[in-house]
Amino acid sequence: MKADINHVIRFHYRVFALPAGGEALESSFEREPLTVLLGHSGIIAGLERELIGKSSGDRFEVEIAAADAYGEVRPDFVQRVPKKFFREPAKLKPGMQTAVGTQQGPRLVTVKKVGMSVVDVDLNHPMAGKDLKFEVEVVEVREATPEELAHGHAHGPGGHQH
């Protein structure tokens, strides 16, 4: 079966920042494959497009431009947040990643500067602005269940657990 929108695909991946040559930024080969319901924004757009048409056992490499990965760096995404919104404000240090509470739930941020009562944080994804190279191995492709389609995500190993 070839992967398409509304199919569930399980795959291993290794991702590198371009230009290549360094260590992988992240890899799934040492754990469960990632499981995604295609067409439901579960992964970056560029990688999802490349998975369409692939079958179990396929291996490929692809380079994804920043715009189709985690987006370009947005300077306006640096904001000043009162310390009261952090769980352990005394432990905050520039460069660390932490979660800050928002109306939409917790959001991962990178600490830029810690002041007396406020913290400057960068809301950009840590891989924003980076062109990426993926090494991918497709493990399984299957049709999504009606429940997965209704929920908008894959269930089971490597997917969402209810």
From TrEMBL:
<keyword id="KW-0963">Cytoplasm</keyword>
<dbReference type="InterPro" id="IPR001179">
    <property type="entry name" value="PPIase_FKBP_dom"/>
</dbReference>
<dbReference type="GO" id="GO:0016853">
    <property type="term" value="F:isomerase activity"/>
</dbReference>
<comment type="function">
    <text>Also involved in hydrogenase metallocenter assembly, probably by participating in the nickel insertion step. This function in hydrogenase biosynthesis requires chaperone activity and the presence of the metal-binding domain, but not PPIase activity.</text>
</comment>
<keyword id="KW-0697">Rotamase</keyword>
<keyword id="KW-0143">Chaperone</keyword>
<dbReference type="Pfam" id="PF00254">
    <property type="entry name" value="FKBP_C"/>
</dbReference>
<feature type="domain" description="PPIase FKBP-type">
    <location>
        <begin position="6"/>
        <end position="82"/>
    </location>
</feature>
<keyword id="KW-0413">Isomerase</keyword>
<protein>
    <recommendedName>
        <fullName>Peptidyl-prolyl cis-trans isomerase</fullName>
        <ecNumber>5.2.1.8</ecNumber>
    </recommendedName>
</protein>
<comment type="similarity">
    <text>Belongs to the FKBP-type PPIase family.</text>
</comment>
<dbReference type="InterPro" id="IPR046357">
    <property type="entry name" value="PPIase_dom_sf"/>
</dbReference>
